[in-house]
Amino acid sequence: MQKEKNSRNAGPVVPRPTFSERKGVLVLHLGTEWIQGAMRIKFPLEIVLEYLQQMMVWMLFNKQPRHIVQLGLGAASLTKFCYHHFPQANVTAVELNPHLIDVCREVFFLPPDDDRLRVLEADAFDYVRSQAGKNSIDILQVDLYDEHARAPVLDSAEFYQACADCLGPHGMMTVNIFGRDSDRHKSLENIYNAFDAVIWLPEAHGANIVALAFKKAPSIVFTELSDRAHLIRLHTGLLATRWVDGLKIWMREQLEVSQEHLP
């Protein structure tokens, strides 16, 4: 698909969104076969894709965030969900592609900006650098891919350090790590170097890894997480009990790796 220049400014060349529909689910593309987001037409607030549900895993550790930020809008699934389910929170979405912002407003039921919701046409790296040291962001959700989805658009040590610097003292970041050209070990190493603790969930559909990074390492009590997961499932429909199961698998695997390296 031919890319077009951003008509609103002299910014980078960006693709126009395209669509397909599968069994009542409207699927967002950027001119390629890669899925950039999805919405169940009859239930537009539902998070359809499993990895995007996993991007909400921070709910196990923070019940009432004050400021939630998405870097990368997609089909606005996370933005709509957070705006609806966390009425006490400010929600900010940062998206470079103006066509995508327009489509989310016109097709994917993204509400207009108000005193709690802001959708910014901006570069994600520029945004997190501008927020450094302000301690105003509790939750950062990072899902940054171009139309070819070969690797995260922003994945450097400098980027993840900027993400950490813009979070409050107990802030958290979830990141979608995907792409045939991505180096997952390098991505996780860069995240580890910027945060106090990092855990991740098993691959969603054999492709996406969602990492959860903590500005300050939490105490993990699985009985408490399980109770919280059941409440999340009850109130939101998210498959939160699977997150707890995934975290148990992750912890068991990390323990096995540690034991293998014992003298």
Name the helix and strand elements from N-terminus to C-terminus, one letter apiece.
EEEEEHEHEHEHEHEHEEHH
What integer is the average pLDDT? 90
CATH superfamily: Vaccinia Virus protein VP39
Shape descriptor reads globular
Total DSSP E strands: 12
Low-confidence blocks of residues: 1-8
State the name of the first-level CATH class: Alpha Beta
Give the strand content: 15-25%
| CATH-assigned fold name | Rossmann fold
Biggest pleated sheet: 7 strands, mixed
Helicity, as a percent range:
25-40%
Query: At CATH's second level, what is the architecture?
Result: 3-Layer(aba) Sandwich
Q: Calculate the terminal CA-CA distance, rounded to whole Å.
A: 56 Å
What is the alpha-carbon Rg in Å? 18 Å
Number of helices: 8
Please state how the strands of the largest beta sheet are arranged side by side: 8-7-6-9-10-12-11
Structural class comes to alpha/beta
Structurally, how many domains make up the residues? 1
